[in-house]
From TrEMBL:
Domain YlxR: 17-80
Name of the protein in its database record: YlxR family protein
InterPro entries found in the cross-reference section: YlxR (IPR037465), YlxR-like_sf (IPR035931), YlxR_dom (IPR007393)
Pfam short name (any one): YlxR
Domain of life per record: Bacteria
Length: 97
């Protein structure tokens, strides 16, 4: 049995994260990290931006589910509305496969 909080990934342990949209726990590399920069939610492709992060599957379905559940102010620990227009456009571009 792998250590709790990690999955075996080609012989190496990989950290787990939970998608804030669908609440499925999966390997960190399959999720997109989001952070708040000046009141706007932006994707953190490289995982290097400062601040609290929230993870979501890179699909519009999980993003819309998270938005409906109003998880972003809680996840980022900020008050007030957050702009998601750039994030939505970015994910729309990723969904076209």
């Amino acid at each position: 049995m792998p250590p709790q909080g990690k999955l075996e990934n080609g012989g190496r342990a990989a950290p787990l994260r939970t998608c804030v949209g669908c609440r499925v726990r999966t390997v960190k590399s399959e999720l997109l990290r989001l952070v708040v920069v000046e009141g706007e939610i932006v994707p953190d492709q490289r995982g290097r931006l400062q601040g609290r992060g929230a993870y979501v599957h890179p699909t519009l379905g999980c993003l819309e589910l998270a938005e409906r559940r109003r998880v972003f102010p809680r996840s980022f620990r900020v008050a007030g509305p957050l702009d998601m227009a750039g994030l939505r456009a970015s994910l729309a571009g990723l969904d076209v496969e």
